[in-house]
Specification:
heterodimer; A: about 575 residues; alpha+beta; 16 helices; B: about 325 residues; mainly alpha; about 75% helix
Chain lengths: ~575, ~325
């Protein structure tokens, strides 16, 4: 549901009315308390209904739409699928949360469109010894209240996170840090529990708040704006849970002048409603256009469609436990053995998948076949893993060799509402496997049911999406393919129960190797070995689509799918 | 009368208690809410710490005990997702849903009752047949689809009305005070009213047809009363009870479950809140919301029953009835 699986959260709710505005005095249909008879009763009906409500409605129903542009500069209205869960940037790691709050707050380390690191509030960083990172900070950065940004704020933000973060715990990105030390006004040192080469990647999601707010403020104080003081390009104006996030330009931003005086991020979770809002001119740009709407928008001469790669990959996980939670059936009878333990079975099922066809049919061409868990250009991705093409003859032979000439029957689970195309992909995969003679029963379930059951280990065969939001391999391979090891903090999402000592060794070495070239080589090796073992099958990477009025905006798509107002510029005219 | 009210209150309390137990058991049966809420990349340590922090490691009866204890002191707890008090989260959305539901019910009543009476009064007229055919469409065409058609027509094609959202909010958290507010309200309210409109037309027509043939209408006519008075007074009052009953039930369900319309028109009401809370297994919101819905239905039913007494003096309210 949240980032990591997919940033595309399902339905959502929004509100404009604040709690203070509410008075518990509803408009219940009152029982007429007058006993003078029917005529009186009828009059009440009429006076309450027609006069008070309907009459004013009729002449007004043809009011012009509210003008988007307002005095004092341009307004950008963005229709987004999900918004933040609070205004506290340390509350949640959810993709939509961080995306929204990047307008108000800056992260210590920046990321380019492909998640490569670049200077943010920190200009440079280096490891001074095995367990210490030193960050040199940007000079002259101002908070929205006019105060200076210094090393104190970095230290404060790091220490604040464990105290205030919610269930989507930000400590994910700070767990390696054991303490921070202010060296001087613009230098901060972070101590880590062992060598932590990916710390700068993790800190690309470390948002900096002002240390002047103190440890007290929580979500309420941030939501009211009282504590929502960042260094980002926009000041906070107002927000309600699942409502509009309204922002205004902060002229003192270190990143330079940008064009929008006012930005409204309107949360419209329903796809059809979001597209309608764009077409009716209520919003300027929308994100997460569903693949089925793309063709129609492309035909519309007033609309422009942008397609970008994402960091998300659909993966099929085999359960490699000795005993399956639900045994497979051969000829209708359950068997003791777990067929997935045989590499030939896994390879056969891989060879039965036609990834190009899936991308074309399920995603209307807006997806790319994958042969590893991360996009090809990420840190630790291997260049030696060619596209996997189907080979049914060989697949059938392998299956027969493994002792299943007539296949077997197994249930296959996936989410149904977490990411576009998930349930359709689940069914399409089951069909492709049926060509081998396997009887795969697809079960696409709501994430509410799927995730707890998946965590319990109830599934023999499952599929879900995973996004590499830090742009490097330790995040993904450490969680998905390293042996489950709570003490070392590895294998937290190892749904396959995969365990390969060689891969574990490479990942552990890589996670402690500060030399970039050596670390990259270690991760590449771990990627190659684990992908050839096939404990899980990467299927496709769905692309992300934005739509906007033709010729109105210039904007570079980002693989983390963020729609950042300060990266959108109006086109001349 | 007092006994009647007390009986009703006791009933309501019991239903609320049962409801909260059911939600607790239901969520427990689905699984641990933390597994839906948590970042998948989180380490097992982080997961264990969160489960402790939210008290989800305790046995279910103790979690429930904590909850009941807090509710009795007026605290429904904090939302897992937003970490703000559940009650203010729900109540902040009540005005939006309330104005939508009231407007929809008004449209349905003010159109449905006259049209239904006409169709019952002149069942053979061509206009009546048109009305009846329209009423079938009203409750057989899916709300979702009609909503999209309305948006396509009024917002995308002719750009007369906004496609969704809510206008500026005025006193009482309502958006009905400004013209702009109405531009946002009218389409979803119309969409929401169609089903009820169809239902009311059919109900009123059936009642009218029946009452038109009855003794007292004949007597009223024999008395020489003008026709409008016969229909508007004697007929309307006699078909009142089923109308008020359906009105009450429909009003309650409109308030509590206007989910489809709220989703299509992106209306920031309570229906969307509950759906999102269910998908996130945000148990505090689910429990509090359903308890409030029970309360709402009890209040509406109470009002409906009091109305019976007014409409038909033969109805006597008895304690615990």
């Amino acid at each position: 549901m949240r980032h990591g699986r997919f940033a595309l959260t399902g339905p959502a709710v929004r509100s404009y009315a604040s709690p203070e505005q509410f008075r518990p005095r509803g408009e219940m249909p009152r029982a007429p308390h007058n006993s003078e008879g029917v005529v009186m009763q009828r009059r009440q009906f009429l006076s309450a209904g027609v006069a008070a409500t309907l009459l004013p409605a009729l002449p007004l129903s043809v009011m012009p739409r509210p003008a988007l542009a307002q005095a004092g500069g341009r307004t950008l209205t963005v229709g987004v699928r999900t918004g933040p869960e609070s205004i506290d940037p340390h509350w949640s790691t959810l993709g939509g949360h961080i995306e929204a709050l990047r307008h108000i707050f800056d992260s210590l380390v920046g990321q380019d469109e492909n998640l490569g690191l670049q200077p943010g509030l920190a200009l440079s960083w280096k490891a001074v010894d095995d367990t210490t990172w030193e960050f040199k900070l940007r000079d002259g950065v101002k908070f929205h209240d006019g105060s200076d940004f210094t090393a104190e704020d970095v230290k404060f933000s790091l220490e604040r996170i464990p105290q205030v973060t919610g269930p989507m715990s930000m400590t994910l990105y700070t767990k390696r840090a054991t303490g921070a030390e202010v060296v001087d006004r613009l230098t901060v040192r972070v101590r880590t529990n062992g060598p932590a080469p990916s710390l700068p990647n993790d800190f690309s999601r470390l948002m900096i708040v002002s240390h002047r707010i103190g440890m007290g403020p929580r979500n309420e104080q941030f939501n009211s704006g009282e504590a929502a003081i960042g260094t980002g390009p926009f000041r906070f104006v107002k927000w309600e849970p699942r409502g509009d996030l309204v922002l205004e330009r902060f002229d003192g931003w270190w990143g330079g002048q940008q064009p929008w005086a006012r930005v409204i991020r309107r949360e419209i979770p329903n796809d059809a409603a979001r597209i309608a809002a764009l077409k009716s001119g209520q919003v300027d740009i929308v994100n997460y256009v569903p693949a089925t709407d793309v063709a129609a928008l492309q035909r519309d001469s007033t609309m422009e469609v942008l397609v970008g790669d994402s960091v998300y990959v659909f993966n099929v996980y085999f359960n490699l436990a000795e005993k399956l939670p639900k045994p497979v059936k051969v000829d209708g009878r359950e068997i003791e053995k777990n067929p997935f333990l045989d590499p030939r079975v896994r390879e056969a099922m891989d060879l039965a998948i036609d990834r190009r066809a899936l991308a074309r049919v399920v995603f209307e061409g807006l997806a790319k076949p994958m042969s590893q868990l991360m996009p090809d250009n990420f840190f630790g991705s291997s260049a030696n893993l060619p596209e996997r093409r189907p080979d049914l003859a060989r697949a059938r032979a392998l299956l027969a060799e493994a002792g299943y000439p007539k296949g077997f029957e197994v249930e296959f689970f996936s989410t149904s509402n977490r990411l576009p195309g998930d349930s359709a992909l689940c069914e399409a995969l089951a069909q492709q496997w049926s060509r081998l003679g396997l009887k795969v029963i697809p079960n696409a379930l709501t994430g509410t049911v799927f995730f707890p059951a998946s965590t319990r280990g109830d599934y023999s065969l499952q599929m879900s999406g995973w996004g590499t939001l830090t742009g490097e391999a330790a995040y993904t391979y450490g969680a998905l393919v390293h042996t489950k090891d709570a003490a070392k903090g590895f294998g937290g999402f190892n749904r396959a129960n995969y365990s390969n000592p060689e891969v574990d060794r490479l990942l552990e070495q890589g996670s402690a190797e500060l030399d970039d070239a050596k670390r990259r080589a270690l991760f590449e090796r771990a990627t190659e070995i684990s992908m050839k073992d096939r404990p899980m099958l990467p299927i496709v990477m769905p692309q992300t689509v934005w739509a906007m009025g033709k010729g109105k905006f210039a904007f570079t798509t980002r693989v983390d799918q963020e729609t950042l107002a300060h990266r959108i510029t109006p086109k001349a005219g | 009368m007092l006994g009647f009210l007390l009986g009703r209150l006791a009933q309501a309390a019991l239903v609320m208690l049962v409801m909260s137990v059911l939600v607790f058991l239901g969520v427990y049966a689905i699984g641990n809410p933390i597994d839906v809420l948590i970042d998948p990349a989180a380490t097992p340590d982080m997961r264990a710490a969160l489960i402790r922090q939210y008290g989800l490691d305790l046995p279910l009866w103790r979690q429930y005990g904590h909850f009941i204890g807090n509710v009795l002191s007026g605290d429904f707890g904090n939302s897992f997702v937003f970490r703000i008090p559940v009650l203010s989260l729900i109540l902040s959305r009540l005005p939006a849903t309330l104005e939508l539901a009231v407007t929809a019910m008004l449209i349905a009543t003010l159109l449905g009752v006259p049209l239904g009476i006409w169709a019952g009064y002149r069942p053979e007229a061509r206009s009546s047949k048109v009305i009846m055919a329209g009423s079938v469409l009203g409750f057989s065409v899916p709300t979702f689809w009609v909503g999209l058609l309305l948006i396509l027509f009024f917002s995308v094609e002719f750009r007369l009305l906004p496609s969704g959202g809510r206008g500026p909010v005025g006193p009482l958290g309502l958006s009905i005070w400004s013209a702009q507010g109405w531009t946002y309200l009218i389409l979803p309210a119309l969409n929401l009213s169609l089903f009820k409109l169809g239902l009311l037309i059919r109900l009123v027509r059936a009642g009218t047809e029946e009452v038109m043939g009855s003794e007292h209408v004949r007597f009223a006519r024999a008395q020489g009363l003008p026709e409008w008075q016969v229909v508007g007074l004697h007929v309307l009052k006699n078909i009142g009870i089923p109308i008020v009953t359906v009105f009450g039930l429909e009003f309650g369900s409109t308030l509590a479950f206007a989910v489809v319309t709220e989703t299509v028109f992106n209306w920031p009401g309570m229906g969307k809140l509950i759906i999102e809370s269910i998908t996130a297994l945000d148990r505090p919101v689910m429990v509090a919301y359903l308890i409030l819905v029970v309360l709402l239905f009890v209040v509406i039913n109470l009002v409906v029953e009091l109305t019976y007494g007014f409409l038909d003096p033969r109805v006597r309210l008895k304690g615990g009835a």
